[in-house]
Amino acid sequence: MREIYTTPSRAEQGYRRNEQWELPKEVDAVYILFNGSPHDEKLSFDARVRALAAVEILKYCKEHSNGGNENDDTIKTKAMPSVYLVGGGADKPEESGSHRMKDYIVRHGGDDESIIVLGQSNNTAGNIEEILEHMNKNEHTKALIVSNDYHGSRIKQLLSYYGVSAGVVAAEDCVKGRSSHHEKLLKEYEMSPEYKKKKFIDSVMTLYLRLDPKQKLVDKVRSFTRKHGR
After folding, report:
1. pTM, 2 dp
2. Is the pLDDT of residue 4 over 80?
3. CA-based radius of gyration for the chain
4. Is 7 inside a domain boundary?
5. In a domain? residue 8
6. Domain membership flag for residue 207
7. Which of 37, 34, 56 is nearest to 46 (CA)?
């Protein structure tokens, strides 16, 4: 299994900031999508990449935020946006996948108070519905959604379907600048048959969304498979 080295001695070795990656100045909310099943003992590789992307985003905001001072033109982000974790819903909220992802983020440098768990939805369509409801409730207008690069097209299609105005950021782009190790690991991952398979499946799902945008049939199949152990 691939591993992302996250101890300070390995993660910070050769650390360099990717200057091509930066948040829009006006962003007021960042939503990180969970990946995997809330019942899995360990976070999936993709979930860990997204979690590390959250760590890098929080670090970036801390370095470049002006604390809400709009007259300061030297900063790159308007203020410190909240980071919300979405998905991995479970019967008990405290057992959601997003809660486990938050633990991972905090263990690897993320600020506990800046991370808020939503985590009630269980698929991409549900994620976007949850984000839309949360944006409307909290009057967020400049949001970013973070997921894996292969997931981007499906997210954008769902954003269009639900009428949500938000940007989409690839978690890989955030994490590659963390260290030379992370950059090499993720480049190899993106070239692997496993990643290409995920990209193909997601492209098929993107086409399928035209028929079933809320993924109801997919959820029924997943539920049946889990119930019968297939």
Report:
1. 0.79
2. no
3. 17
4. no
5. no
6. yes
7. 34
